[in-house]
Amino acid sequence: MKAFLSRFRLHMAALLLAFATAFFANPAAAAPCTGICFTPGDYSITTLHKGLLRNYLVHVPASYTGRSAVPLLLDFHGFSKDANNERQYSGQLAESDKRGFIVVWPNGVALSWNAYGCCFLGDALNVDDVSFNRAVITAMKGYANIDADRVFVTGISNGGGMAQRMACEAADLVRASVSVSYPLNRPSCTPAKPISMWEIAGTADTTIAYDGSTPPLPILPNDLAGVPLGVQGARASLAAWKSILGCSDELYREQLPDGSHYAGSRFEEYRSCNGGVRTGLVTIANGEHVLYNGYNELGSNPDKAPIDVAPYIWDHFFNL
To answer: Residue 75 forms beta bridges with which residues?
Structure first.
């Protein structure tokens, strides 16, 4: 009888300990993470990838507890900028706090990404940015409770090109992608599975022309040592994605609020594509290269578009 009571007390003590651990432990510790388990806050992660020191910034919103899986967004900076700049101006920091997803701002090598035909050392040295960003996604799944079915990428300019390339070469990990001010810049690619892909582009962009451009001399290539001498137009990029994704010819069209400066801005989308994905183009009439509202570097007008890019992306594209 005494032996029975002893075993009973031990059993009850173990149950109480397990209950207390579950009840009082840091909520984020409940996440299926390995090693470090993120709690709400901001992080800077430096890692060695293929012989290069790489870095990325992370924001975990206050609503994150680790109990439920949340979406993950990778947000790529433009050429000559960095993760801090993108964090400040893209609007995704505020959307993270509002909607509860975790956002990562990776840093490219020498302020550049190896997108298709751009830019600088990233392109010239053929830096394997796709494998780096794939590794970031994998690492984030170890740090936090990430919904593997809601991993998204976006970026601007050279970073938009990185978002395009991730759609082509990381569709097994990424659900959908939005590029701001940069086309696919090639006639085709072969995603591992159908992926939704959109572009937002301005018709007055003098950096990456909306209608595309060709090298100044016929003998020059489109890409010379990381400098894009010729780029695909936004509509040609949309046509390429229509073909890649096997979309029907039916094109949905919607006029956007235009105020006095952006008359003719519109959204077009193919909605009948392989695997139920979509692809489309937001055209900002008179829109310039940097379309983030609130961006005021280089003396530019902070009123950039008839839409606020970050919430528009989540309301219309990443609302899966």
So the answer is: 154
